[in-house]
Structures are given as C-alpha cells and as structure tokens.
Amino acid sequence: MVDTQAIADNERWSGVYKLLDRNSLIHPEFEPQEEIKEFIKSCKILVIGAGGLGCEILKNLALSGFSDIHVIDMDTIDVSNLNRQFLFRRADVGKPKAVTAATFINKRVQGVNVTPHYCKIQDKDEEFYQEFALIICGLDSIEARRWMNATLVGMRDEVNPDTIKPLIDGGTEGFKGQARVIIPGMTSCYECSMDMLSKPTGFPLCTIANTPRLPEHCIEWASVLEWPNKHGDRKMDTDDPKDIQWLYETALARAKQYNIQGVTYSLTQGVVKNIIPAIAATNAIIAASCCNEALKIATTCAKNLNNYMMYSGNDSVYTYTFEHQRKEDCPVCSNSATKLDFNGEKTLEEFMDYLKEKPDVQLKKPSFSLGGKPLYMQAPKQLEEALRPNLAKPLKELFSNGDEIVITDLTLPFSMQVVITLI
Amino acid sequence: MDAKTQKYDRQLRLWGNSGQDALESAHILLINATAVGCEILKNLVLPGIGQFTVVDQGTVTQNDIGSNFFLDYESLGKSRAERACGLLGELNEDVKGHWVAKDILTVLKENPGYLAQFSMVIASDITRETAEKIAALCWVNGHDANANPGSSSPAGKKRTAFVWVKTVGLVGAPRIAVPEHAIVETHPDNVADLRIDTPFPELSEYAKSFNFETQDGLEFGHIPYVAILLKYMEEWKQAHGGKIPSTYAEKNQLKANIRSGMRSADDENFEEAINSVLRSCQPTVVPSAIKELFSDSKCENLTAESSNFWILTRAVRDFVNDDSKSSGLLPLSGTIPDMKAQTDSYVTLQSIYKTKAKQDVQEVSKNVESLLESLGLAPGSISLQEIESFCKYSAFLKVIRYRSLEDEYRQPKTNNIASWLSDPDSVFPHYVLLRASDSFYDDHGRYPGEGENWEDDVDQLQANVNTLLQSWGIEGNTISKDLTHEICRYGNGSIHNIASFIGGVVSQEIIKLITHQYIPMDNTFIFDGARSVSAVFAV
C-alpha cells in the first residue's frame, strides 16, 4: 500500500499551485485562496466517453489535481482503439472501456479516484447529473451530444445557480478538431450550432439502385438493398468480419459489373461503419484544451474560453477562437418557435425527409402533432398505422399557414416548435 | 485484414501504407523526459514509430510525477530516462525503446556523431546554449539529405530534424528547424483538374457525344455537368474570339446561358454545372509557387546526390516546357469529382481523364529516365508509383526552407517582428518574453519566478525584454508589464494540460515531417492557454 499522506502535495503540484497561489495582472478578478485547492480536490467532475478523447481527459484531470472523477461509457474495447486509447492494451480487448480506464488511472496516479459507469448516458437521470460541478464530453456521436446538451440545459433553474452545469465539449477528425465551453443560459448551446455540421452523408436511393458511379455507391447497394434481400431479418453486425467480407464481395461484384474501380475491404468497412480517421496527437490537443478550460472554470485562475476554438493541422497549425452566438430560435435554449418555409404542395413524408437531412435538424424518426392532436406518430404501432395515410397528404391539407406544429423524436429529450409558412 | 492493419486502421486512413512505413523506419531521440517530452513520445509510440531513445541524467522527483503521466510514484528517486522509457514502451509492443541516463552534453562529448543516427531530435527543458549546440549539429546532418519518404535512406543520406519545445505555465512554444522539407502529398482538399477552359481533344469529342435535344427526360437529366460546361464554354468562346469569361458579369452571363438550357428546376446536373462556373473560369496555368520550384537552383543544378523530389521536379519542368507534349500545363491529375450521370457516361469520362493523366506520366517518366542516366544513377531507381503520385499532386508541391536557430539569433527579422508586435491581440509578446527568460537565465542561473519572492523578478525580466527589443531597434513599451508579471507568476512551472496540448501539436508536426505528408508549420508555434489562442511565426 502506498501511503498517500506521504506525498508532498506542494512539490508534486508546484506547477498548478503557482497558478493558484499567485495573483494575475492580466486577470485581476482572480483572488488566490486555499479553498480553491480544496475545491479541485473535492469537487465531482464527470467525463462522458472513455475513448480517444476520454482516455486523455481522464489523464489530464488526474494530473490537474481533480480527484473525484466519474466516467460513463457504454462501449467495450476494440483492437482498432489501441493506436490512440493509451489506457488499453491488447489483453483488454472486449472489456468495458469505462472500467478499464478507471482502473488504470487509479493505479497510475496516487490519490485519484475515478468511478466508472459502464452504461449509456440515457440510463442516468437528472439527479445523477446534478451531483457534478462540471461535465466534459469526449464523444463521437451527434445524437449523444444533443441528448447531453438538452438534458443539462433543461436542468437549469434560473433561481438556483447550482443547477447550472458547465459543459465542455471536444471533437476530432483526422488532424482537425474543436473544443468549446457551453454554460447553459449564458452561451450558445450545442443545438444552437447544429447548422455548422455538414449534411449527414448518404446517397440518393435512385443513384445506389440505378446509376452507381463511385465505389461507395456499390457498397451502399450491398448494405442497404442486397443485405435484406439475401439475409431477411438477420441484422448486419458491422463488427463481425464475416459480414463485412460478405458486403465487400457483394459490392465488388457489382462494381465489376459496372466497371467501377476502388472497392476495397477497408473502404467497405469505412462506409458501413461511418469510420472517422482518428489519431492520438489530435485527441491530445483537443482533450488538453478541454481540460485547460475545466481547470480555469473550476479555479477561476484565468478567463475561460468564450466559447469556441477550432484547430486544424492539415496545412501548418491553425487555431480560430471565437464567440459562437446563441440561436434566437434554438429549440433547446430559447423559448421561441423555429420558423420554416415549405412548399405546401409537398407531402408530409417529403417534409419529413427534408427534416432528416437538414443539418440543423437531423431527426431520425420524427413524430408530428398540431394543437395537441397527432398528425403522424412513429409509435405505438397501431397509432402509426392509423396515421400513416397522412404521410402521403400535401402539407396544405394538413395545416394552414402560420400553424405551430410540434415535432418530437424518440432519440431527443426535447420537442421542436415549428411555425410553418406554406409557399 | 492482418493484425497490424486492424490496430492502425484509423490512422492508415490518413497517411496510408507509405506514411506508415516511413513512421516505422524512424528513430526519435528525446532529450529530457519532461511532461511535454513524454506526451510527444506517447503520441508517436501509439501510431508505431520504429524506435525511440530517451536521454536524461535526472532522477524522478515529486514535481515530475505531478505533471508527467509516464513517471509514477514507484519511480521516485529512480532514473527518469529508464522509467519513462519503460512506461512509454508499454504503449506499443511493436516499438523499440532505449534509454541513456546521462546528460546530452556528456553523451555528445563521448560521441560527437551521436545525433546522426536519429531522424528527429526533440528537446525540452534545455538552456538556450545547449539548444544552439544541438541545433547546429542537427542542421549539418540535415543539410546533405532530403530523405525520400517510405524508402529507407541509404547510408550518408541522413536527415535530422530538430524540435525545441518550451512550456512555461499556460504558455507553450515549439520551434522546428530543418534545412529543407519537401512534400508531394500535401493532401489538398480538391485535386480535380477538369480543364474546362482548355479541353484536350478527347475531352472535346466526349462533350460533343451528348444529345442536348433528346426527348428522353432521364437521359437529359443525366448529361454529366462536365459535358454541359464544355458545351456552353465552347459556345461562349466562339462568340467571344476564343476568350473565356473573365469579369464577374461575364461569368454571371455564362451561368445564365446554362440556366436557359434547363428544362425543369429539378435538373440537378445543370445546377452542378452552374455551381462550377466560377472555378472553371479560372484559367488553367502552372501555379506561381510551382514556377518558383522550377527555377530553384536545386532543380536547375541536379547532381547524383539530388533527392528524388528535385529530379522529379526537373522532369516535370522539362515536360511543361515541351509545349507539344504538355501545352505548357502540368501533368493532369486524372481525378474527377462525383456528378449526376449515368454509370456508363461517368465511367467513360473518368477513363478519358485517367488515360490522359497516364500519357502525361509516361512523358514525365521518359524525362526521369534520361535525367537518371545523365546523373549516372541506376535506371528505374525512381519507381513508377512515385512518378504517378508526383504527377498527380504536381500543382500542390511544397518546399519549406526553415531558418536555422543561428539565423534567428544572429539575423533577426526586425521588420517582421515590429509588425507582429503592432497587432494588439497577437500572441507574439510571448515569444519575446520566452526569449527574455533565456537572457534572465544567463544572468541569474534560474528562470524568472521560480522562487518564493517571484514578484521581485518582474522588473529584472522587463529589463531583459527591453534590452531584446532595443537590439531589434524597437522603441517604447511594446510588451505590457502585466504580461511580464504573468510569466513570473508561471515561475517556469509545468502544467500538464499545456504539456499535453503542446505534446499533441508537436507530434502532429513530427508525423507530417516523417511521412512527408500534409504541411508542417514554419517555424515557431505559440499557444497562450490563458486566452486559448495561438499563431505561427517564421522567426
């Protein structure tokens, strides 16, 4: 047993303690106090995701002096994680990421206690999230980020400052990434910036079926059209090399038929799993930026990022720091309805497809209602069947100009109020 | 898929097998196992560099384990080099780690040629005097070589890039020094080179093969936009004495002409053509940056020692200068974007561009062979694959010539410095403060703010700043005393988040240097973690 009492705190943390013990003339609001050091030791901090960013974030928090750290992750370790998720070894493949990461940090850094939660973020309730001083997200999914953001924004109670949970969010792709600080009610939130995302990738069904041109079209054909044809109800397992091999061979055969070059096993895997290139270096940069902000917010030793930093390493090194503005009609952090123009001759189904693709909406399975009356519902089954005919009706038959419709989606913990103008 | 491809899948999608081979043949030296040094190595061991060596004579202290993840409680009192090597080595069974528990100056005294075995030398927590010494040794090694990526460099063709990293409190500043760095695969966003303004004969023929009068709506809606653009551009040229649209109004007119040919608002192919008008009205020329390479003395005066890069540059230049073969243009990239089209017409168009690109590669290959012969080098010593890649990216080639540390100190770019300091939001004052901190060290044998009475150092450091500014001919209080105070507040402390941030940046740059892919920064990056802003300066 290591005697943690023996650790000479002051020497060990001398770098951070200089920041906390000494005043700053560029940030005169900061007042050094012993309580701040106690606070970072005792406050609870939550890390969402124990992947590429998560491993880095856990390490950085532990070495910043935070000692009550929680981590949530629902995934298990895959061999392709090992090129960057440095808390995992080959022997750990198949084990839960949250548990393995927590065990590693607890062993390496004396006096730190990381508590793992091997589950989905949606499995936890507001009471759980309420316990934390701040939350750092290292996720690769838009859906999970939206859920977390909407939950934390929804928890804010104006009269009780303890309900305001700063959310620090990081993301990477290849040599690029971004870090941002979201303070519910004060800064823009994740939902406010949905329009910065690119259109969800996907190819028109008619191209896949009739006029393939790219190797990607052949792969989509194999996975979207041929798979259900040949395998019936059996769901594709994109983690099973046998299924990927089948898709690869099927796509390759179609590519040959159409004289299309470039179908490879690796591309097949990339397309069906929507793989984003990822390296340790970029995760290190973005995670460090997030944790630098976490330390600044928790201690007030310097001004925190307001509120967005982009990083790009493709051509030289370039960062851009700016204040992302709140969206006046944000469905999450504002009270006003979103305004939308749409052709009244088009059907509800066409409207639904449009909302699925629109970058700032990106709904998966939307349901619609008007004045409390359902127009179309994804579930339960009977209601869905009863309302399905509405999908084929033009919008002008379903509602009139200026109506406020409510759109919900099972994957999102909020509803969108949309005032529609028929054109 | 083999085990290694599985493990490295997410990075192979960025730099491919050639980049990975280059990484696996690299041997990297880390001077001093500091937090930032170990973070850099972590990000290089994980993606699988070949070998690394840690040189450090120190023993592990409490301060080390508070900011360095690769030194732990068990390491206290033991050799920093040995422990860091051990804990970093655990990250990847394919990487070989070595350690030397000595000071780098002692190592160099015992073996003056020590650095030549490394592809890259990274140093942190060294004095300016030591940095200058190491930089000078690396610079000599780097001069006689510009290693060809992927190929194992033959004996005598060593290249040693040097990276000196400073981190102080919330500030970090890495500096890269290598005489010359040439890149073929710069990974531009778009390599499509459609030549709508100057179509080659096969392309013009293709455009004419489409029937714009067809009654078949499906056929009409699938005429590839390249054919649409070529048709309307040709009509424009005939009406305008062979000239393409050059003014904004003319380009808009061409857009309007195309729009008038649409049959319904749903003709996506016409929309694609309209959206490409501005790009297509940029005349196809050899970019000025590439012309500069053509007139570079390394391109003019090839020797048997010339790197493949310069031999290929010369071969492409000779191709461009032979108007009958190239029409004065670079080799065609041969890549086209996706567009609304029937499979057959798309595949045909693709093969027209690919065939022309292949012809250009053949011509360049002939030039390469005759150059190799005239230089007395083995025929075929530059592979077809390398020539193809060079031709494909020839419009985006890049050569960076870094300034040496010696030039930075002896021949300061005073005009640039004055202009960098004139921007009130610039992070450049931190460069000045870190330089002044080196002078402070020369005077006092310690860095500003290290002791208890840290505020006493502010005036002294400010004096060092002023001396430095005066030496550059810059008058007045350009550096705020509040910022000098802030540097003393940091007291040369190591903050893990900053070490990790800078470690990430430096390892990205090292990957770019080793793989010869993407474009590394030139030459000093400065990050101010208090404001979360950064910039790059070629000091």
Q: Would you write up a description of this structure?
A:
The complex is a heterodimer of chains A (423) and B (539). Chain A is of the alpha/beta class and 423 residues long. Chain A folds into 3 domains: 240 residues, 3-Layer(aba) Sandwich (Rossmann fold), CATH 3.40.50.720; 69 residues, Ubiquitin activating enzymes (Uba3). Chain: B, domain 2 (Arc Repressor Mutant, subunit A, Orthogonal Bundle); 85 residues, Ubiquitin-like 2 activating enzyme e1b. Chain:  B, domain 3 (Structural Genomics Hypothetical 15.5 Kd Protein In mrcA-pckA Intergenic Region, Chain A), CATH 3.10.290. Chain A is 36% helix and 17% strand. Chain A is built from 15 helices and 13 strands. In chain A, β2, α5 and β3 form a beta-alpha-beta unit. In chain A, α4 packs across α12. The longest helix of chain A has 20 residues. Chain A starts with 8 loop residues before the first helix and ends with a strand. Chain B is α/β, with parallel strands linked by helices. Chain B has 4 domains: 222 residues, Rossmann fold; 80 residues, no CATH class; 98 residues, no CATH class; 84 residues, no CATH class. In chain B, the strands form 2 sheets. Chain B has an 8-stranded mixed sheet with strand order 3-2-1-4-5-6-9-10, with helices on both faces. In chain B, strands 7-8 form a two-stranded antiparallel sheet. In chain B, α3 crosses α25 and α10 crosses α12. The longest helix of chain B is centred in the middle third of the chain and has 32 residues. Chain B is elongated and about 85 Å long. The two termini of chain B are 46 Å apart. About 3% of the residues of chain B have low confidence. The interface between A and B is large, with 79 and 84 residues.
